[in-house]
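task queued by scheduler; priority normal; single chain, no ligands, no partner chains; default sampling; output format set to structure tokens
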Amino acid sequence: MSKDKSYIPEYPEELRQYAPEELTEIAKALRATIIETLSQGEGHLGSSLGTVELTLALHYVFSTPDDILIWDVGHQAYSHKLITGRKNSFGSLRQYKGISGFPSRAENRFDAFGTGHAGTSISAALGMALSRQALNSNQHHIAVVGDASIVNGMAFEALNHLGTTTANVLVILNDNTMGIDPSVGALKSYFESVKKDTPSTPNFFKSMNLEYTGPVDGHDIPKLLSALSEQKEKKSPRVLHIVTKKGKGLPTAEDQQITYHAPGKFDPLTGKQSPPGQQTKIKYQEVFGKTLLELVKRNSKIMVITPAMPTGSGLVECIEQFPERCFDVGIAEQHAVTLAAGMAAADRLPFCVIYSTFLQRAYDQIIHDVALQNLAVVFCIDRAGLVGHDGPTHHGVFDISYLRGIPNLHLIAPRNAKELQNILFTIQKGIIGPVAVRFPRGYSELEHVNTTFELLPWGRGLQLKEGSTLALISVGNLAKNVSLALEKRLDTEEIAHYDLRFIKPLDTALLHSIFNSYKGVMCVEEGTIKGGAGSAILEFAAENGYTLPVELVGIPDQFVPHGNYATLTAELGLDPEGISKRIDRFRNKIIG
């Protein structure tokens, strides 16, 4: 059998017509297709290469979609997509209006539950199983937990509940010792002992009243078929422990698992990454990481925490040089935030570095453990705004709205990387209470990281351009698009441009000046309009009796799909052309 994509079955029903010994060749075709497709663009390569055999075995043994299959950390599921009716659209993976990089109920009947964040699958599977148990259903419910998501607190909570039930739930622990970065924590050491078959090792899952089987080689199809067939005969809560290798089938991905988690373009034959284009600028994450490292060197009170994102947030060097002050706590956002609160209570200055989309998982801890006690924790909110191809599970568009209403917490959106550096420098000079600083994914305006910083005035915005009639207030990195829009306009002298910088507290002196000087105000932000920075400005206007027209430009009340950043900003009217059109409409409305 060829490795060509045409040999990949369209659906599991077709897959089950093959003899078991033929599945190895189908696995080769799946791997070749994943490698070929992802070599041309961004995608989660390593995880999906590691689950090819498991995917085939699951769909071969169980009667999906009648039997429910849920993929924790859904970027493991590319093989699943290929054999569930999407092989002909697989080339559109993560592209605008193409198929999602994660399971999606709206996309396909085999995607039983949408997953993008870690630790959710066991709870979802148990919820479905208990619902169907009441109907005397014999359906199996399978949660595939991988990429270190078993360490997430929600997974533990679900296991704790699962062990008290008789629900037909099979938890498959896909043990590849990796998340995006290497797994951390005591549970990693435990699984290493289990794999070595250490006799004295007590079984964690059995102690939770769960039947345990394994470990099983996750790349040996006959062994997988045998193990899963045995599991199919069972109806009680149980765990099957399989061992896989992230990046399996592409030597460079096996050897460099962190890099090839999502490598970007590469040679599909050699695996060698394509050389970067003519990009002279450096990423925000590199600017942030090097700046924070410099501040850690200068200020002995600084502690650094990341929940499983040291590489993504530019913190590897910091952790290597200061292991006693910099901590990767794994996929444990709630713990990360309260850990930071404890450090602040002990007179340290913790920087909790976390993606916007993941910070929302620790909302109670932000309020109860940090803000209520007015503890000086610095939340460094990475990937704020649109993140592109990862889509609605990962866009960081809600943080302004969900943080703005929390008492004591200050919220800052620097407009560029240099301002980010200066804000971080200013913060570590001394703060009272919690502070959140949001910055985007992508490239900055800098060609190198300068370690000469300057203090910024606290709570103050900045006028970037003078004007006579309209005032545009930009939030964060959208200042660039606003400036580009104004540069091309014939009426540019009529339009002033301000960098809000501080979303909370607002620069009320600046806002009074703006509302007393112009005929209209427009706020432009890369976040949800409802409850966003523009809403804060409207609240200010209402409180102070201003009746000036105010236009809010941002993310509407919807989930933004996946696609490249330029496409998404254009669709939302947040690119320079879209902003200019909104200016035209607003200007015509108030001036005529």
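post-processing summary
- The first helix runs from residue 12 to 15.
- The chain has 22 helices and 17 strands.
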